[in-house]
From TrEMBL:
InterPro entries: HINT, Histidine_triad_CS, Histidine_triad_HIT, HIT-like, HIT-like_sf. This is HIT domain-containing protein. One of its GO terms (molecular function) is catalytic activity. It comes from Candidatus Doudnabacteria bacterium RIFCSPHIGHO2_01_FULL_46_24. The active site is at 98 (tele-amp-histidine intermediate).
């Protein structure tokens, strides 16, 4: 399969692995957003979070939580952001589920997503659309 993360998992291509067990691997991002940016992936290939079984997501996220705390401690970061992208529109470029762990440093210049103003009517219309899908 032509998946760069599968190739990293089977060690066909090198990476800086920081954690590995039978289900999950974590390695350093090749183009880090901040010092210590790491990726946590399930070993099983699935394109994204929606395509992945709940037990696999659970194993991967629980490991990401532990690894993020270790990264913060090791690198004296001030916090971290954990995120995953689903779909090209969200910025996904590698279609093998991965959680980014981005260590955050005070004054790191990583600005948050721009917030928008909205009206109470718009918010409740949108909430109603979403709630219909959750029934
Ligand atoms: P996405 O944009 O899909 O959410 O994130 C993909 C991430 O994978 C990017 O942050 C990118 O730098 C990283 N990446 C892409 N190719 C490689 C690679 O060959 N090795 C490593 N270690 N990271 C990679
Ligand atoms: Zn893969």
């Amino acid at each position: 399969m032509d998946c760069v993360f599968c190739k990293i998992i089977c060690k066909e291509i090198p990476s800086d692995i920081i954690f590995e067990d039978d289900k999950v691997m974590a390695f350093m991002d090749i183009r880090p957003v901040s010092r210590g940016h790491a990726l946590v992936v399930p070993k099983e290939h699935k394109a994204d979070i929606v395509e992945t079984d709940d037990d696999v997501i659970s194993d991967t996220v629980l490991e990401a939580k532990k690894i993020a705390a270790a990264i913060q401690h090791a690198l004296h970061a001030d916090g971290f952001t954990i995120s995953t992208n689903r779909g090209e529109a969200a910025g996904q470029t590698v279609f093998h589920l991965h959680f980014h762990i981005i260590p955050r440093y005070r004054r790191d210049g990583l600005t948050a997503w721009p917030h928008q103003d909205t009206t109470p009517e718009t918010r409740s219309q949108i909430a109603a659309e979403i709630k219909k899908q959750l029934l």
